[in-house]
Design brief:
The structure holds three protein chains of three kinds. By secondary structure, chain A is mainly α. Chain A is built from 16 helices and two strands. Chain A has a two-stranded antiparallel sheet. Classes of the chains: A mainly alpha, B alpha/beta, C mainly alpha. Chains in contact: A-B, A-C, B-C.
């Protein structure tokens, strides 16, 4: 009990959080030196997905908008990097700002019409974006290599680092992920971030309170698209090959599914979702080689039963429960029922410090009866 | 409520354990000795870490066996789409698997320099998604430590991995795609195709039209990707200078639901010939249109979709006389019912791959390509990767199971296409009836050149 | 001009295919407020059941009737068993469950029946009829007729029967419905059962045209989404109109807009949807949602 009490103290919690973060960072830095190159490559894929998922999370988890088109921004980021590196011959780091600016601008452009659309309709319009991307990429084959795709020389580590190629790419991914996380946290905790949450919770009320709804929403869309674009750039470096076949609607759906599995509105959720995305197919294949989809589909459904608020959500609830002295769950946490609001309420009553973003979900527009 | 939560927490624990196990360890338990840990400084798993068990039987001058060869096994890896929209091709992998089990069970394992070793075959699902292929191939090469990649399926998946595979100097024989690129490109000596490339097949049709339908107009339907374009470009260059003329072209995307719009536009051209460059489910739709419409062109069906199961799905009766090019025997064909080769295939597939429909063209393909690989091993002098690569560069009239009479594998220093001959057949009743002779496209048209491939 | 009318007919025929599935999507949306990604795969699965029965020697019509019954029970069961545990969670969670179902059904069908393309018996003669200068396939006309009949029946059910009214009430206001004694859970399940049945009709109608394979409905699903979005997600009639617009615009764009061509024809219906939604965010026939502070 004493431990629980001490843990409930905000200052302790803060130190605890920092401690956990440092520990995880240490593990992340140590991992590529311990695991085989192939595993390091898989971890890089996890980081790439995690960045894209984090971006979608900003939009969905904090802004309440659903996009089924983030695979398109991912593809554009990847192709921008590929074309600049292969056709123009740019050094690999130079492509980053260009890809980010392009995807940010496109995201802004899509974000404007998105203002008019409600959750479901927006989701399906963005789905259209994901559907038309591959044929458009094929159409401009002079630039994109058409359906044969483009092979990109992987960035080689500078001599002084002493790193192998896989480790180097992993660290590039890790740096990008950490920067993405830090920026996302700052964004969420900033005035804009609070405006975003306010919009998700109650757009009309937020507007009357003087939030520039349109601008905040559009900027969030752009920001979120830019994250997907960054993930695309890392994809190009790490995989070394782009083709329209790599960016079908499946990618967009995967990103959304991983976001929900990992947990909306949390920083760790995207990472956990990405781990699910990269490793669960392997498990499914071991279960039934002839039809891996049977196991994967079942595992995805199972994950939603076990973690209806995402893996990160469950972890947080269990932690909260532990702090509250075990026994019964706090109101709304484990119970079935529209957890959206009640969970948010729980959080505030727990006295969670403001830097823990509210764990929450999708469109609330339709939620209110 | 507590009971509810507790149960959920238990589930959660189980699932997170599974996740953790997948993330940190190896879910496969059979690769304990592959130097999984501590291999940090290098990218190259080649020739590392395996137990080399020299076999007394192999010729004295042979070097140490390569990675993936042990005293009693030869380990191979393949990637196929077992999930997702291209899953139909997964049957190829299953047939290859069945063949290797047959070889282990009936032929005493691998032949020649590999004698005394059983095939160990690892299949990974890549869903026809290039980044997944990269991951799967790296797992096969680095974790599973396979001797060779047999096979990778699909043009984009192979294009995504072949740089890596060639850097690692892992043999990648008989990739399951007919792109002409595999034979044209000189920078990837560790990769070689197998099936007649799409350009060669187009030449067979061009030759057939020149001889039988001179002066005709042609309408083309093709899938808008490397496969469709390779066929189309090959066909265009093969009819160059002749009196044949393409009067209409339509493409489709694999996301299209129907082909009626495209087919109507092609029918509008009233061309004499319809060249159908489509994968099975779209081929069925195009044939269905042809069966119903008033337009009655000479219908050329590409070999990708000429399995009689596909044609039969539409119905044989309205499709009589459609034309295709073959290089493998169709087991449903009555003329081969007494054929020893076909009988062996039917019996052995029933035993080692009972889940497969023997009449499925992809099963025949898988069996034939696996037997070709077996024949390649027979020609290989030492159980090493270098010897395998050398062997596939010098194939001389090598016969293989399920090949049509007169079709053999041939390669040489300037020829990296094992199969370049096909024979025209037309649909008569419920089987393909072979017409004329085998057309050797290399002899008739000369080697496939860069200019033809779509690069 | 002849080509124009022919492509118009083609577009309508293809649009009817999209519409048939879109109606099932709308049914689920109306009764449970979510989009069911597995709708197409469930329809495909139903078509396989009918096919397996005919392979086992059943007549076509008995096979169809049994399939419709099995699909209804199956849809009911899916709601009770698979969806029920996440009921009341936010919509995204349920949508992800339906994506899981999509993957599951697709793989299961491939596992049971393989991924080979198969022919499917059509209730209609596989012929064309001449309509003046143009011709239309009888199976396509049949789809149009059946879809129209289904929409008519659904209209009667929801507008004229007590059951329909109860279902609507349960979907629109579960809390109040529960208070007046409506078994909301079962009404939702009934919605799924109905949608699965309509989906089965769709699967059986399109299988002779698209040919039976586990991936038969993948392309249709995207266009069905487009159709339902365009028509307004809560209107069955709107879904049909939406489907026809999508089909026709796609067909004509591929033929007449030179730089679009067959490869980009999908862009046109998508552009139309975006355009319509910008003017009417709830779709052509959808009810605008009211927002309250």
């Amino acid at each position: 009990m004493a431990i629980r009490q001490r843990l409930r103290d905000p200052a302790t919690q803060r130190w605890l959080r920092i401690g956990v973060f440092v520990l995880l960072l240490a593990v992340a830095i140590w991992a590529p030196f311990f695991f085989a190159p192939f595993r390091v490559f898989q971890f890089s894929r996890v980081l790439i997905f995690a960045i894209a998922i984090l971006g979608l999370g900003l939009l969905t988890g904090f802004n309440g908008q659903i996009s089924l088109g983030h695979g398109a921004f991912f593809a554009i980021g990847a192709y921008t990097a590929a074309v600049l590196m292969v056709k123009v011959g740019w050094p690999f780091l130079l492509v980053v700002p260009v890809a980010l600016v392009i995807t940010f601008a496109l995201g802004y452009g899509v974000g404007i019409p998105a203002l008019r659309l409600h959750g479901l309709y927006l989701a399906l319009v963005t789905l259209a974006l994901a559907v038309v991307t591959p044929p458009i990429l094929k159409r401009f084959s002079g630039l994109t290599g058409g359906s044969m795709g483009l092979t990109i020389p992987k960035p080689q580590p500078p001599e002084w680092t002493g790193l192998a190629a896989d480790q180097y790419l992993y660290f590039l991914g890790l740096i990008a992920f950490i920067v993405a996380v830090v920026l996302a946290r700052n964004l969420v905790n900033s005035r804009i971030g609070r405006a975003m949450v306010a919009i998700r919770e109650d757009p009309l009320a937020a507007q009357t309170m003087g939030v520039n709804l349109a601008q905040v929403k559009t900027l969030t869309f752009a920001w979120s698209a830019m994250y997907a674009g960054m993930a695309g750039v890392l994809f190009t470096w790490t995989i070394g090959f782009v083709s329209p076949e790599s960016f079908t609607i499946v990618l967009s759906i995967e990103i959304l599914a991983a976001l929900v599995v990992g947990g909306l509105g949390s920083i760790w959720g995207p990472l956990l979702g990405a781990i699910f995305l990269v490793f669960i197919p392997n498990i499914s294949e071991d279960i039934n080689q002839a039809a891996p989809g049977i196991a994967f589909g079942a595992l995805l459904i199972l994950a939603m039963y076990v973690f209806p608020g995402g893996i990160a959500g469950l972890a947080r609830r269990q932690w909260g429960k532990f702090l509250m002295g075990g026994g019964d769950a706090p109101p709304g946490a484990g119970a079935v029922g529209r957890t959206d609001r009640s969970e948010a309420a729980t959080k505030t009553t727990e006295g969670r410090p403001e830097d823990e973003p509210v764990a929450n979900t999708g469109h609330s527009e339709e939620g209110a009866p | 409520m507590t009971k509810h939560t507790r149960k959920r927490a238990l589930f959660a624990l189980l699932l997170s354990l599974a996740l953790f196990a997948a993330a940190c360890g190896d879910t496969r338990d059979d690769d304990g000795d592959t130097g999984d840990t501590g291999a940090t400084e290098t990218d190259s798993p080649t020739d590392g870490g395996t137990e080399t068990a020299t076999d007394g039987e192999t010729a004295a001058e042979c070097p140490e066996p390569s990675t993936g060869i042990t005293a009693d096994t030869i380990k191979l890896g393949g990637t196929y789409p077992l999930s997702g929209p291209a899953s139909a091709y997964g049957a190829i992998g299953q047939a290859v698997q069945a063949y290797f089990e047959y070889a282990n069970g009936e032929l005493g394992g691998a032949p020649g320099a590999f004698e005394g070793r059983e095939f160990e075959y690892v299949i990974k699902d890549d869903g026809y998604n290039p980044p997944n292929t990269v991951e799967a191939v790296r797992e096969l090469v680095e974790q599973e430590q396979v001797f060779a990649l047999f096979q990778n399926l699909g043009t984009p998946p192979v294009a995504a991995v072949w740089d890596y595979v060639n850097q690692q100097e892992v043999p990648q024989p008989f990739v399951a795609t007919g792109a002409s690129l595999w034979g044209l490109n000189q920078e990837h000596p560790w990769t070689i195709g197998w099936q007649p490339n799409y350009v060669s097949e187009s030449r067979v049709y061009a030759q057939y039209l020149k001889e039988n339908h001179a002066g005709s107009t042609i309408a083309v339907l093709y899938q808008n990707d490397d496969y469709g374009q390779d066929y189309l470009n090959g066909f265009k260059s093969a009819i160059e200078g002749s009196d044949l003329e393409i009067v209409a072209e339509q493409s489709y995307e694999t996301t299209d639901a129907t082909l009626d719009s495209q087919m109507t536009n092609l029918a509008q051209s009233e061309a004499d010939v319809f060249f159908n460059i489509t994968t099975p489910s779209f081929a069925a739709k195009a044939m269905g249109f042809d069966a119903q419409s008033d337009w009655n062109p000479v219908h050329l069906l590409n070999s990708v979709s000429n399995s009689l199961t596909v044609v039969g799905a539409v119905g044989f009766e309205p499709l009589q006389g459609i034309v295709t090019a073959l290089y493998l025997k169709d087991p449903a064909d009555e003329q081969f019912q007494e054929d020893e080769d076909v009988q062996n295939y039917m019996e052995m597939l029933a035993e080692y791959g009972p889940d497969l429909d023997p009449n499925n063209g992809f099963a025949v393909y898988g069996w034939a390509v696996a037997d070709s690989f077996y024949k390649l091993l027979e020609q290989t002098e030492c159980p090493t990767r270098e010897a395998l690569q050398e062997a596939w560069g010098n194939l001389n009239d090598v016969e293989f199971a399920m090949a049509l009479p007169g079709i053999t594998m041939n390669t040489g220093s300037d020829d990296r296409f094992p199969l370049e001959s096909m024979q025209i057949a037309t649909l008569q009743g419920e089987t393909w009836e072979l017409q004329g002779d085998v057309i050797n496209t290399r002899e008739v048209f000369g080697p496939v050149s860069e200019a033809v491939g779509d690069g | 001009m002849e080509l124009f009318f022919q492509q118009l007919i083609n577009g309508l025929a293809t649009g009817a295919i999209y519409a048939s599935l879109a109606v099932a999507l709308v049914l689920i949306y109306r009764s449970t407020d979510i989009v069911n990604f597995a709708q197409g795969e469930m329809a495909m699965f139903s078509a396989y059941i009918a096919w397996a029965l005919t392979q086992a020697g059943w007549g076509f019509w008995p096979a169809v009737i049994v399939t419709l019954i099995v699909s209804f029970i199956g849809g009911l069961a899916v709601e009770r068993v698979v969806i029920r545990p996440v009921e009341g969670q936010n919509e995204l969670t349920i949508v992800i469950v339906t994506i899981g179902l999509f993957i599951f059904f697709n793989a299961l069908a491939g596992w049971i029946w393989t991924f080979q393309v198969r022919g499917f018996p059509s209730p209609f003669p596989q012929q064309n009829v001449d309509l003046g200068p143009v011709s239309a396939g009888i199976p396509s006309l049949g789809i149009v007729a059946v879809v129209a009949a289904v929409v008519g029946l659904l209209f009667l059910l929801f507008q004229r029967t007590k059951l329909g009214l109860t279902m609507r009430a349960a979907a629109e206001n579960p809390e109040s419905s529960r208070l007046v004694g409506i078994r909301v859970g079962w009404m939702l399940a009934l919605g799924w059962g109905l949608a699965a049945t309509v989906g089965a009709i769709s699967g059986i109608l399109v299988a002779p045209i698209l040919f039976l394979s586990p991936n038969m409905m993948a392309g249709v699903l995207i266009f069905a989404f487009a159709a339902a979005t365009l028509g307004g997600f809560d209107s069955a009639g709107g879904a049909v109109i939406g489907g026809l617009i999508v089909g026709v615009s796609e067909s004509l764009a591929g033929t007449y807009i030179g730089f679009i061509g067959a490869d980009l024809k999908i862009v046109i219906p998508m552009a139309i949807i975006v355009g319509v939604l910008l003017v009417k965010p709830e779709g052509l026939f959808g009810r605008p949602s009211v927002e309250r502070v």
